[in-house]
Amino acid sequence: MTVMVFGAGALGSLIGALILKSGQDVVFIARGEQYRVLKERGLKISGLMDEEFEVEVYDRPVDADLVFLTVKAYDTEKAAELLRDVSFDGICSLQNGVGNEDILSGYFSAVVGGVTTYGANLKEPGHVVYAGEGMTFLGDWKGNAAHNFADVMEKAGMNVEVVGDIGKRIWEKAAINAVINPLTAICRVRNGKIVEIPQIWTIAKKIAGECEAILGRMGFHVDVENVARDVALRTSENRSSMLQDVEKGKRTEVEFINGAFVRKGRELGIDAIYNEMMVNLVRGMELGMD
Ligand SMILES: NC(=O)C1=CN([C@@H]2O[C@H](COP(=O)(O)OP(=O)(O)OC[C@H]3O[C@@H](n4cnc5c(N)ncnc54)[C@H](O)[C@@H]3O)[C@@H](O)[C@H]2O)C=CC1
Ligand SMILES: CC(C)(CO)C(=O)C(=O)O
């Protein structure tokens, strides 16, 4: 059994390292400086684990049995096109945002949706910080490969559960990210500050209200304001992934988070003007960066 991690950045490298450590075969797909360093010096993981790994790394996909997809959401379509040229039995997205599984379902017959709260940061090429042990929920989107991916993760000692409502969980996580991420990125604050600073929290509540109305119409009943508030306070010292992207001058996933609510709102006839404002402000910041 060979597991491919397509997109060996922060999360992919961590997942790959944990699977490799358990004695399973892993191939890492990376690009740029990350590819070069992984090939020449291997992978270093620090933080909750302190280990170095010699890794089998390629800059394009190769045949494998199972594929974990860990590229950013805006790279999913391109990844799917590249993966079309190799053979594998199933692909599992562990990405944030909405729409990845639908894109993959247009290409492949066994697609698994995933939501993970494991935390990883890329300190420098080839060096990933394992920042938080979390939980991963997997569910079949197309076909029935979820249990195969869960077995691999379980063997690697990871916390994982196969669920029947992965669509709801993906949208729920997107709602939490829609409330926290753009505001932390625009205001340049840590997660807890969006609750502490009334001027920010007023806007957060509006975003949460729109997300809740849209999810409700989809049949997903979630108290978005309270759930997002709890997550922001539990992770109060975190710099959200969107804030980190903006600080590094990188593109964000805002179009797959708040943008997903704007598109779904339009479809359902529900206004999502605060989500739309977040998309426009964050995209504006990205496009204005030199
Ligand atoms: N980092 C984390 O703790 C968590 C991340 N996520 C989600 O997981 C996904 C990945 O996040 P990160 O690992 O933080 O991002 P990242 O940017 O560190 O990793 C993505 C990697 O994929 C590589 N990649 C993209 N296209 C490629 C291609 N065609 N060939 C080879 N490599 C390619 C990129 O070069 C990059 O190294 C995102 O959707 C994120 O929201 C979800 C939960 C936690
Ligand atoms: C939950 C949260 C907001 C934690 O920082 C996150 O998922 C992110 O930063 O993308």
Automatic annotation (TrEMBL):
Pathway listed: Cofactor biosynthesis; coenzyme A biosynthesis
UniProt cross-references to Gene3D superfamilies, sorted A to Z: N-(1-d-carboxylethyl)-l-norvaline Dehydrogenase, domain 2, NAD(P)-binding Rossmann-like Domain
Entry keywords, A to Z: Coenzyme A biosynthesis, NADP, Oxidoreductase
Domain (Ketopantoate reductase N-terminal): residue spans on this chain: 3-142
Domain (Ketopantoate reductase C-terminal) ranges: 165-286
SUPFAM superfamilies noted in UniProt: 6-phosphogluconate dehydrogenase C-terminal domain-like, NAD(P)-binding Rossmann-fold domains
Protein name (database record): 2-dehydropantoate 2-reductase
Natural source organism: Geoglobus acetivorans
